[in-house]
Specification:
The chain is 56% helix and 9% strand. Helix 6 links the parallel strand 2 and strand 3. Strands 3-2-4-1-5-6-7-8 form an 8-stranded mixed β-sheet, sandwiched between helices. The chain folds into 3 domains: 83 residues, Four Helix Bundle (Hemerythrin (Met), subunit A) (Up-down Bundle); 196 residues, P-loop containing nucleotide triphosphate hydrolases (Rossmann fold); 127 residues, Signal recognition particle, SRP54 subunit, M-domain (434 Repressor (Amino-terminal Domain)), CATH 1.10.260. Helix 5 runs parallel beside helix 6.
Length: 441
């Protein structure tokens, strides 16, 4: 996410590294590089101009605080302005009516239908709500089928009506929610490849009929400034309440996320970080600014760990680790829980300083290969790896479809880890170590 922007901003900060204080002379080149970084990230030109005016006025003449070097001071100034540019504070959904209505709008191809399902799951898991998905894109029958399939996968009901009249579907969808005691209605409206009058009139009429609490426009982060212009038009016609920026896990330059709030005055409320239905996150401007600057996002990382890791299982695993009784069953369980947290690259971005590590190859398939090797072991082999001899390794390699070298490599890694745990356990007993690193509180 924002890899190119991160790299260019890092180069800008290097200009001030080692300087005694911020002056007009040494900050000029840094400011120029920050400006070029934002423009190359496809940030709206007006946004860049105002942003640079604010950063420049704060940077010039700033006294370097005690224990803070000029490059750190400049990073803080840029960070603070990025937070403001992204909205300042988190903007939550305002769902007061019963049932609450969320109208999903946007251009075709932005990921609107998938996002509607993601939002339903997020509300169900995070807020304890009982949502209903309403398939109101009658111009694209595949969208209705897609929403039905997604709804089934997350155990959320989907109302389709007659699949012909978008206005009747919307009205009867609300009646259905009331009759079933569902408290949130998410309406997936039709999109187009570009804004047209017919589409806008249709969604305007639906909005008048259902009187939504929230009108969320889905923005494709990879689509550039044309999408920001479309956002301004949607806001003018519908008065959107916020945005969901999708595909941030891809090769996004960042221009959409950094321009939307400035151009429309409306906040980003959610971001899509992957294709899976559980990969939707609430948007926090300060956390996103930190990630853009390559400083990680520890808070979100901790939240993901707490959400996806089974505390009881981890406590049991901790006890076995203390006694060096870690098995391949434990290893497989760890892999599965890590995979639930998202892609390795997205997790790496949350670790402070990780963006500075160059040429790191994160092979997502490698985790699958390791799990396949472990799955090819018998229960006895997973529990007691010491019995795995050459003939057993050959059978495991054949059963997993992986080369024998990978089986040997996994076995070697396991042996080294077990030796390390034994050494650690001995040091802990002697009182030479503090808290056990795997301890859960």
């Amino acid at each position: 996410m924002f890899d190119s922007l991160q790299e260019k901003l890092a180069d800008a900060f290097k200009v001030l590294k080692g300087k005694g204080k911020i002056t007009e002379g040494n900050v000029k080149e840094a400011l120029k590089q920050v400006k070029m970084s934002l423009l190359s990230a496809d940030v709206n030109y007006k946004v860049v101009k105002e942003f640079m005016d604010k950063v420049t006025s704060k940077a010039l003449g700033e006294k370097v605080m005690r224990s803070i070097t000029p490059d750190q001071q400049f990073i803080k100034i840029v960070n603070d302005e990025l937070v403001e540019l992204l909205g300042g504070q988190q903007s939550e959904l305002d769902l007061k009516s019963r049932p609450s209505v969320i109208l999903m709008v946007g251009l075709q191809g932005s990921g609107k239908t998938t996002t509607a399902a993601k939002l339903a799951l997020w509300l169900k898991k995070k807020k304890g709500r009982n949502p209903l998905l309403v398939a109101d894109d009658v111009h694209r029958p595949a969208a209705i089928d897609q929403l039905e399939m997604l709804g089934k996968s997350i155990d959320v009901p989907v109302f389709t009506g007659d699949r012909k009249d978008p206005y009747e579907i919307a009205k009867k969808g609300l009646d259905f929610a009331l009759a079933k005691g569902l408290d949130t209605v998410i309406i997936d409206t039709a999109g187009r490849l570009q804004i047209d009058e017919e589409m806008m009139k249709e969604v305007e009429k639906i909005s008048e009929l259902v009187k939504p609490d929230e009108i969320l426009m889905v923005l494709d982060s990879m689509a550039g400034q044309d999408v920001v212009n479309a956002a301004a038009e949607f806001d003018k016609r519908l008065s959107v309440t916020g945005f969901v920026v999708t595909k941030l896990d891809g090769d996004s330059r960042g221009g959409v996320a950094l321009s939307a709030k400035y151009v429309t005055g409306k906040p980003i409320k959610f971001v899509g970080m992957g294709e899976k239905v559980d990969q939707l996150d609430a948007f926090f401007p300060d956390r996103m600014a930190s990630r853009i600057l390559g400083m990680g996002d520890v808070v979100s990382l901790v939240e993901k760990v707490q959400e996806n890791f089974d505390k009881k299982k981890m406590e049991e695993m901790e006890k076995r680790l203390r006694k060096a009784q870690f098995t391949f069953d434990d290893f497989r369980e760890q892999l599965r829980q890590v995979k639930k947290m998202g892609s390795l690259s997205s997790l790496l971005e949350m670790i402070p300083g990780a963006s500075k590590i160059k040429n790191v190859q994160l092979d997502e398939d490698q985790l699958k290969h390791v799990e396949a090797i472990i799955n090819s072991m018998t229960k006895k082999e997973r529990t007691n790896p010491g019995i795995i001899n050459f003939s057993r390794k050959k059978r495991i390699a054949a059963g997993s479809g992986r080369p024998l070298s990978e089986v040997n490599k996994l076995m070697k890694s396991y042996d080294e880890m077990k030796k390390m745990m034994k050494r650690f356990g001995k040091l802990e007993k002697k009182g030479k170590m503090g808290k056990f690193p795997f301890q859960f509180k």
